[in-house]
Design brief:
149 residues, Beta Polymerase, domain 2, nucleotidyltransferase activity, Aminoglycoside adenylyltransferase, transferase, nucleotidyltransferase
């Protein structure tokens, strides 16, 4: 694992610690989620992608900003929370809920659109001793297939 990956894993551990203490659920998504489901770092990653409930985003930002994270001024806040710490970039895409409590897109032009069934029901992933909530592998694949749309 290279040095950037070590710092990214440290940021993942920090997010898990902060959100766990605050009772705020988050789910790893993207390449790091796949690596945690596989149990090993499989490739270099540009950033760390998460999901959080839109209602928790302001509190989450405040907790991480108090620990030295900074807002990423390049990114719009309507669709996700983007923060940096050193050379580590993290994003928290917002989740909403429909009337039945199922997860939906939580912000931006697709707000309210349904997300894949069972997406948040995956077992946690693990690399070494670090265990992290992730979205389901099936949802990851569905997103990759839908990406051009």
């Amino acid at each position: 694992m290279d040095e950037l990956a070590r710092r990214q894993v440290a940021s993942i551990a920090e997010v898990v610690e902060v959100t766990g203490t605050a009772g705020m659920p988050v789910w790893l998504r993207g390449g790091w989620a796949m690596d945690f489901q596989l149990g090993a770092v499989t490739r270099p990653h540009l950033d760390v992608d998460w999901y959080c409930w839109r209602d928790d985003a302001d509190r989450l930002a405040a907790l991480l900003l108090a620990r030295g994270w900074l807002p990423d001024p390049r990114m719009p806040v309507e669709t996700q929370l983007d923060l940096v710490v050193g050379d580590v970039e993290v994003s928290f895409a917002y989740l909403g809920r429909d009337r039945a409590g199922r997860p939906t897109v939580g912000g931006g032009s697709w707000a309210g659109a349904p997300l894949p069934a069972g997406m948040l029901d995956a077992p946690s992933g693990r690399i070494g001793t670090l265990t992290v909530p992730t979205i389901s592998v099936a949802a990851q694949i569905e997103f990759k297939q839908m990406y051009p749309v």
